[in-house]
Amino acid sequence: MSQKPPSRVDLLQGTLDLLILRTLRAGPAHGHAIAKHIQHTSEELLQVETGSLYPALHRLEAQGWIAASWDLSDKGKRARYYRLTPAGRKQLAAEQVRWNTFSRAMGLVLNPTDQEA
Amino acid sequence: MSQKPPSRVDLLQGTLDLLILRTLRAGPAHGHAIAKHIQHTSEELLQVETGSLYPALHRLEAQGWIAASWDLSDKGKRARYYRLTPAGRKQLAAEQVRWNTFSRAMGLVLNPTDQEA
DNA sequence: AGAAATTCTGTAGATTGTCTACTCCATAGA
DNA sequence: TCTATGGAGTAGACAATCTACAGAATTTCT
Question: Is A52 on the interface with B (CB under 8 A)?
Fold first, then answer.
């Protein structure tokens, strides 16, 4: 009966932007820290590869959803800090809805109530 | 406060196989019917395009997770009926776990409990 | 002082699974 | 005969992830 879950799960395409925007809602952060945060709060289930992370950050910046500036990190290294723009907040809300809707839809198919008239 | 959900949501990559396998758990069905079923039970939130559907079916068949045979549909048209193989059942279980794990991980990041020691 | 590990950003290219936009054929009904 | 519906299919575009690199700066270890 017991079913050990996979130790790690690949990201489904289209979810990384949401994860990043959500992370930045708590305040500005640099790429490395964003990845660590996602990994940590997901209890190590999600892992963001650098080859996904940086293109995503540049994508979001190009869309105007986040803005960046160079600064120094806690450990004293140069780091590019990103923060949510007003447009980014709207986008975050929209992607939240999208995710909620999608995962609800999946639930309907996977566990149908099956009560029809 | 009220937030109307999108009338339709694009599939996230990697979820179609699961939806198809899950649908076939109820018994053999042909492609067209599978698509309709997913669309209907998801309350029209998910829509499977034929350009996604048929390649997916062929993919699953090539993997040995489903098997096919020609027959006649309810409406008397030639239709290719697919059924779950034993390997397909295992795959379905695995993908279920994968989805559950992933969506739980998303939940952790999106709605963190935030209680740390 | 020098070596090694860590932190941080980044790119190139492959892969994969969606999507849009078609085609084709058969049957049913007007 | 014409149209709507049911059903299977392909071609090619597209986009986001992945693996696998590289490189620079700083701290830590020896």
Answer: no
